[in-house]
Amino acid sequence: MNLSPGISIKGQHRIQGDVLFDVNLDIPGGLWTCLLGRSGVGKSTILRIILGLETGGAFEGIFRATDGASLNGRIGYMAQSDLLLPWLSVLDNVCIGARLRGEPPSEARARDLLRRVGLMEHTDQKPATLSGGMRQRAALARTLFEDRPIVFLDEPFSALDAGTRADMQELAAEVLIDRTVLLVTHDPAEAARLAHQITVMSTRKVQNWPVPQTKALRDINAPETLACQSKLLEYLRGGTA
Amino acid sequence: MRVRDILFAVLIGLGLWQAIVILTDAPHFILPSPWRVAQAAYKSRVTIAENAWVTAIEVMLGLLIGTLLGVATAIQLAMSKIVERLLLPILVFTQAVPVFALAPLLTLWFGYGMGSKIVMAVLIIYFPVTSAFHDGLTRIDGGYRDLSVSMGAGKWNFMRHIQIAQALPSLGSGLRLAAVYAPIGAVIGEWVGASKGLGYLMLLANGRAKIDLMFASLIVLACLTVLLHIAVGLLATRLTRYAQGTTSP
């Protein structure tokens, strides 16, 4: 049984009176939803609205979890920048959420998560000594440490090289299985590979896109994945759906 | 290499000084030669050491207390918008009053002992430390704030675990300034009214036309300031490296 709730959001976001976008989106529970769109259409803003972060505008509408409970404290967040604290060890970075809440951190659990993301040998190192891919793996372990049923990923792999990005996609799909994931991405290939639901956003509308019928975490070279990626790219470049 | 450079610069300075003495043929009670100053320094070494010790204590205590007060104020300002709105304009306004002008008043209130000089040093470094650290605390990376909000961080825990550490390089910049200003504060306090200290000794030597002793005191004061600047510079570098994760605390 899947316990991760979905999210529905409906409303309008304005900046200084101007409408940035209208949104009516259902994010299914326990699955990966990939949110695509051109720069500036407000993909990250949707994520920030639900997280309660500063957006520079005003949202008029509602968003709620499908199980009816509050979303407060149930969403984990991972950004494009790894946001590791340079002065802390990798292990302490993973535990930072507990410290920020004034709770005693469970180092054993943090070590276990670092083992899962392949950083067991680097627990005592400072982030400055890690590669970009290793830093994002540490950030993923930190997100997992929060143990939230919903996870928002805001272009977390976009700054990585192609090989490391593919590895990180596989790792994230494996460790975030059964959680409700909203992934904001610019990359049609990433969406075609990972998504259970693809949502494309423009200034005019937010619409769901046909997803390949194969199981998520698809083979990059599978014809369905490549076809989906190609059509998404064409649409994002200004073509028609 | 660096020590050699410093020694070379000192030798050039002494050479120039000696050249001016010879070329101007100035009497020793106007401009004593380096050698004469060295002789006076050796002869009065105990007096100079005793007074230098007093000034050093005043400066160190002033630096310590001023830094603690500045850090505490900066944290308060950064944590509360209301405190920031009320206190910051007052702090800026107080900078319009030259601290030196307060020296006679401080001597009147805190006496001729070390107290008034320490207060003077505290007042003179308080604002640079507060301002630099507050700037660092409020110039926080927005991503850290987002992450903390998503993690349900409390305001104080965010300050304690992220803001303070990230602002340590800014505090280091404030401390570098403070290390230069603190001796000025203490010596001006001693000029206005004191019974000990290098500033007092300089005034005393001046009054008795012992210009060589005055120069000796001045050189010792300069050496103290340079040493303090180097020590604080090392501390500031360490704070920056810690915040960058390139050294342990």
Automatic annotation (TrEMBL), chain A:
Q: Which residues form the ABC transporter domain?
A: 1-228
Matching PANTHER family, A to Z?
A: ALIPHATIC SULFONATES IMPORT ATP-BINDING PROTEIN SSUB 2, TAURINE IMPORT ATP-BINDING PROTEIN-RELATED
* MF-aspect GO terms: ATP binding; ATP hydrolysis activity
Which InterPro entries did the record assign?
AAA+_ATPase, ABC_transporter-like_ATP-bd, ABC_transporter-like_CS, ABC_transporter_ATP-bind, P-loop_NTPase
This enzyme's EC code(s):
3.6.3.-
Organism domain of life: Bacteria
User: Lineage of this protein's species?
Assistant: Bacteria, Pseudomonadati, Pseudomonadota, Alphaproteobacteria, Rhodobacterales
Question: What is the name of the gene encoding this protein?
Answer: ssuB_4
Q: Which SMART domains match?
A: AAA
Provide the alphabetized UniProt keywords: ATP-binding, Hydrolase, Nucleotide-binding, Transport
Task: State the organism named in the record.
Answer: Pelagimonas varians
- EC class, as a word, reads hydrolase
Signal: is it a keyword of this entry? no
Checking Pfam families in the record gives: ABC_tran
In the record, the note on similarity to other proteins reads: Belongs to the ABC transporter superfamily.
Please state what the protein is called: Aliphatic sulfonates import ATP-binding protein SsuB
Q: Which Gene3D superfamilies match?
A: P-loop containing nucleotide triphosphate hydrolases
From TrEMBL, chain B:
Supply the alphabetized keyword list.
Cell membrane, Membrane, Transmembrane, Transmembrane helix, Transport
Q: Which Pfam families match?
A: BPD_transp_1
Compartment(s): Cell membrane
State if Transport is listed as a keyword.
yes
- Give every ABC transmembrane type-1 domain span: 48-236
Q: Which residues cross the membrane?
A: 7-31, 51-74, 86-112, 118-137, 174-193, 213-236
Keyword check for Cytoplasm, yes or no. Answer: no
Any single GO CC term annotated in Swiss-Prot or TrEMBL for this entry? plasma membrane
Superkingdom classification of source: Bacteria
Tell me what topology the record assigns in the membrane: Multi-pass membrane protein
InterPro entries associated with the record: MetI-like, MetI-like_sf
Query: Single Gene Ontology BP term?
Result: transmembrane transport
Q: Which family does it belong to?
A: Belongs to the binding-protein-dependent transport system permease family.
Listed name of the protein: Aliphatic sulfonates transport permease protein SsuC
Q: Which organism is it from?
A: Pelagimonas varians
